[in-house]
Backbone:
């Protein structure tokens, strides 16, 4: 009988798993990045076509992530030499500089801590996963994708901005929210507050659904 491998996933709103890893930009500790938001994303392997498009997408939007005080970090279960050669290949073939570090995770230590190894998808490759960590080191979002399909980097950028907005203003954001659009006011928690909600000056639809501009 085949043994089932259990994948342990990190949990939202708890401290993100710590790491101290070798990268293409030198050694990086998650704790050293406190004060910045972090987007940690894994890819199945270097020198693969889908991953190449994603790396180009992250590189092209890197300044936008920086403007949101966010450090982008890539990871795969490949050596530092493979990462360096692939970065050079992307520059040579596509004219794109990769400005963010890539973790060398040959021992799969970081990948396992973040639940990136899914035996049903591949035994020795990290699935496409994205983790958004806030400036205090708390995991705020995670998304997993299949090996065959690339991510939308614009969506990752959007969720970082939405999370930062919710954290700063104590609000929620509606479907496909973008900066400058109205946000959702938290619903009232008591009958008295429910009764008063209509007259509080919000863009009111019903007691549980109101919006406001920031």
Residues:
């Amino acid at each position: 009988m085949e043994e089932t491998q259990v994948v342990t996933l990190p949990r939202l709103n708890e401290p993100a798993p710590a790491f101290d890893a070798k990268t293409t930009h030198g050694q990086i500790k998650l704790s050293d990045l406190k004060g910045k938001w972090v987007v940690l994303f894994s890819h199945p392997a270097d020198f693969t076509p889908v991953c190449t498009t994603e790396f180009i997408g992250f590189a092209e939007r890197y300044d936008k992530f920086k403007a949101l005080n966010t450090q982008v970090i890539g990871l795969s279960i490949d050596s530092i030499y493979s990462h360096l050669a692939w970065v050079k290949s992307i520059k040579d073939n596509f004219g794109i500089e990769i400005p963010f570090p890539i973790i060398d995770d040959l021992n799969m230590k970081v990948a396992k801590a973040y639940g990136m190894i899914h035996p049903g998808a591949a035994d020795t490759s990290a699935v496409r996963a994205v983790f958004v960590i806030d400036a205090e080191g708390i995991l705020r979002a995670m998304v997993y994708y299949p090996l065959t399909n690339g991510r939308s980097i614009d969506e990752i950028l959007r969720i970082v901005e939405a999370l930062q907005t919710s954290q700063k203003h104590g609000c929620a954001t509606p479907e496909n929210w973008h900066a400058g659009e109205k946000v959702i006011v938290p619903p009232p928690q008591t009958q008295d507050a429910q009764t008063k909600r209509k007259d509080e000056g919000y863009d009111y639809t019903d007691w549980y659904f109101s919006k406001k501009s920031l």
Observations:
- The helical segments are 49-60, 62-67, 80-94, 109-113, 153-169, 191-196.
- The chain has two domains: 20-151, 170-214.
- The radius of gyration is 20 Å.
